[in-house]
Amino acid sequence: MLNHPDYHILVSDKVPVGESILALLFIPIGYRITCVQNSTEAVAVMRSDPADVVLVDLAADDSVELGMLVMLRKFFPALPMVLCVGGHSEAQGAQYRQLGVVDIWIKPVDPRAIVEQVELALEKRNQKPVKAAVSVTAADWLANESEALDACSQWGEGAMGVPLRMGLSAQVREFNKDFARLRGFGSLAVVESRLGFGVLDLALDLVRPQDSLLVACLAGWIDRAVLTELLEPAQNNDRSVVLVVLESENLDTQKQSLVEGLLCRRPGDALSECFGGRVRVLLCGAESLCALAEQGRFSELLLMRAGAMVKQVPALVQRREDLWVMALAIWTRTGSEAVTIDPACVAWVSEQAWDGDYGPFHRTIELAGHIAKKVGGTVTPRELARAAALEPTWVKPLYHELLMTELAGPLVEWD
Questions:
Q1: Cα separations (Å) of 407 from 43, 242, 252?
Q2: Can you tell me whether residue 156 is helix, strand or coil?
Q3: What is the pLDDT of residues 352-397, one digit of tens each?
Q4: CA quadruple 36, 406, 162, 80: dihedral sign
Q5: Which 8-state DSSP code applies to residue 308?
Q6: pTM of the full predicted structure?
Q7: Residue 138, domain extent
């Protein structure tokens, strides 16, 4: 028996009837247990209190939860996951194995065997992988970048660092130093950057309470019907909400008023009366919203709620020393951590004339990993150059776009 007091077990079950049983099984022998109702909440817990193994109760026909399970794997590629299912087909089993699931339990599960099975999963996790003699993967690179990771971990990043903020440059260190304040914002914060969908990285870190609902929306979509649909999961309960508004410079006067109504209750406004004071808003724009307010194009009252919480994310051109660490983290979180990396890629990534826009950088690196998996499993400057040429015309959803579909639901449609 491992009996390690620091082991944390995370359980995702829509009907957590087994919470008391699991507590009786694990707490007396020194484990910690956290139970949540879905993988979205599991991601939120993992950001603030990383687990050593996660148990997921999954219905065979629950495509939504399976989709979130995929995202959980992408966010935490090394996390041991155990599925508890009522039965599955051969094709479903293959899909689960592709997710790196360490074990599949068929319900009903004998409680007496759970401890043994969890410890087997932990032992598999603790086994050190054998590195190939002539190949280096993204995971290997990250493991060897000890100086970089140590620098990141002092801001609470560690090996699961978010690529958006991972790095060594003075600008990133300054941003990370202030991030604890950003996490604690009261009703609203403003992020000025050219991150595009990449700002969702920040949003995921901001949602620390497991009972919070995280939703995202493009500013151009916002109207009363859309906000009602986005916030519906929290309509009949007391869940707090974090609303991420992308491209906030496109909020017109009417849309700004709708957002403001979520921050303070307005009598007679049904949406405001239901959610006023329960919603925290993260306004994200490529332009300076403060400058727009000075021009009379944005509500000063809305920005006043942000106070000092206006944060500018440094552009890539200001942080060249971060680019390679970010690339490695992108490959890891998008499922290409096992792809072999040609050392010549370091110079290619570092020397490109990135214009400061995070989106094309992330998509180029991600595409290069996907291309490499199809043409031999090695990323070379050739795959990177091909990805860079392909990226401007790429229309299929990639990492952040797929994440957007989970946070906005049916509002997002891809051809």
A1: 13, 11, 23
A2: coil
A3: 988 877 889 999 999 999 999 998 889 999 999 999 999 999 988 8
A4: positive
A5: T
A6: 0.63
A7: 129-169+316-415
